[in-house]
Specification:
Length: about 475
């Protein structure tokens, strides 16, 4: 089984998953953290560790002195790569491609089922995985060597392919070599420092899925193998965040411990926000964490109705505890990606009146000035969306009560129309759609509330029964009128 905690005092990883994403701002020490793990664990007989440095220079060309260095010193690769700038990284990867082929041939020799399957060979099982990352060139076997070929069928020299293609080939080779050299009697760790360098976002996502595919297809690997990835790439995070084998943690400056949290169903809801940094920077959207699916649908409708005036991205939490967890995770992750992150959280009132809630760093937190989001249905603006008013609703409700004396919600409607504050701080979940029905509105109540919020204009509340009072002027100024 994978150790729950890996490392030493200079670098400790807690909550180990098969794939561990480590995010952090420039200068936070992510590379130092990975190299410390490599130095400590690489010296232990119960670990098999490989480190991929962040700046990978060179060309994907086999050179004799690289082979000589590797053969003369078993630790040469480790020593040459424990730096930010590895001068001949890709040249070494080219040598490893030949070694990878030898590993695969040994695997064929050892596994009868693989040996008898004529549809499988090194090209179909390994080279094809490299080619899945390439668009304009392919790697093909010609004679005794592998070469790059363009779409016209012409050979392209390794030093003439693009930096992104060169990165993809080198990284894929390193990843394939690592998985083919996994030791069943050891804990195997691949430390990958900024694999997204020079790669298009789509290619970053493909690389992430390549790494993930090994764990998804081979349960045995999950028991003793893991990858630690230091990255700034939102595309890579999103490509991996949907898997149960993946965890995410943040590296802060001068802190040597990284705690990995599982990419749970709720955390995955953050992925679309972090996955579109360009579109979000253009539209100035901000994440809005809300309590429950109902709130999410209301705010989605409000965004649509506002036609671009409301710029929030609703993210749902299933409970108050989950909301707190999401708030902490959101602000930690955002602060590692964006220079001036802005995010919000709105909680139900749940009967709490006049109790302030403090911000969490740059995440602005608010509590509704009513029991829950559906209580907004009885504000003047929502009643106006339903083409009625409070007095007209009371009259319609009286008629409904007369005609439905045995209805299970009679007592709730009686309490509502007799309330001085329209049951503002009382739970009305059971009658929220009935309120719409009483006045002849067939729209879902979430649509009514969302449309009313989306059409709000800046104004001081004339009465205490307006949305601006139910949500709060401070919250609206930042959520809607910022």
């Amino acid at each position: 089984m994978l150790p729950t905690t890996i490392g030493t005092t200079s670098a400790t990883l807690e909550g180990t998953h098969n794939i561990n994403i480590i995010v952090g701002r420039n200068g936070a020490g992510k590379s130092t953290f990975l190299r410390a793990l490599d130095t400590f664990l690489g010296g232990r007989s119960d670990f098999n560790v490989r480190y991929i440095s962040p700046e990978r220079a060179g060309s994907f060309i086999r050179q004799g002195h690289i082979v000589t260095n590797m053969e003369s010193s078993p630790t040469w690769i480790k020593e040459s790569r424990r730096v930010n700038q590895a001068a001949e990284f890709k040249n070494t990867s080219a040598v490893l491609l030949r070694d990878l082929e030898l590993l695969y041939l040994r695997k064929i020799s050892d596994e009868e089922a693989l040996r008898l399957d004529l549809a499988r060979n090194f090209e179909t099982d390994r080279i094809s995985k490299i080619n899945q990352l390439l668009l304009n060139i392919t790697m093909e076997r010609r004679g005794s060597d592998y070469v790059f070929v363009n779409q016209q069928g012409s050979v392209v020299q390794p030093d003439q392919i693009s930096s992104g293609e060169s990165e993809a080939v080198s990284l894929a080779t390193e990843i394939l070599y690592f998985f083919d050299s996994v030791r069943p009697d050891r804990t195997n760790i691949l430390l990958v420092d900024e694999p997204d360098v020079h790669l298009h976002p789509d290619l970053q996502a493909r690389l992430g899925r390549l790494m993930l595919s090994f764990f998804e297809s081979n349960p045995a690997l999950r028991e003793n193998t893991c990858i630690c990835i230091a990255t700034h790439s939102t595309a890579l995070v999103c490509a991996l965040a949907g898997s149960d084998h993946v965890g995410i943690g943040t590296k802060a400056f001068d802190i040597n411990e990284v705690k990995i949290a599982s990419a749970s169903n709720q955390m995955r809801k953050l992925a679309p926000f972090f996955g579109h940094p360009l579109s979000l920077s253009l539209s100035d959207d901000a994440p809005l964490i809300v309590e429950g699916d109902d709130d999410e649908r209301v705010w989605q409708q409000a965004v649509r109705t506002s036609r671009g005036k409301i710029r929030v991205f609703p993210i749902v939490a299933e409970s108050v505890d989950q909301q707190t967890h999401l708030e902490e995770f959101c602000i930690d992750l955002m602060s590692t990606i964006y220079d001036d992150p802005i995010s919000f959280s709105v909680r139900d009132g749940d009967g709490v009146v006049g109790e302030p809630i403090t911000d969490l760093g740059q995440l602005k937190r608010y509590r509704l000035n009513c029991y829950a989001i559906e209580n907004l249905l009885l504000t003047d603006e929502c009643l106006a969306v339903m083409k009625t008013s409070w007095s007209s609703f009371q009259s319609a409700a009286a008629v409904w009560l007369h005609e439905n004396k045995k209805h299970k919600d009679v007592d709730a409607i009686v309490a509502l129309i007799g309330s001085e504050d329209r049951l503002r701080h009382i739970k009305i979940k059971d009658i929220r759609q009935l309120i719409c029905s009483i006045v002849g509105v067939k729209k879902p109540w979430e649509v009514v509330v969302g449309q009313a919020i989306g059409n709000l204009s800046k104004q001081e509340p004339d009465t205490s029964q307006m949305i601006v009072d139910f949500i709060g002027i401070s919250a609206l100024q930042r959520l809607i009128w910022r």
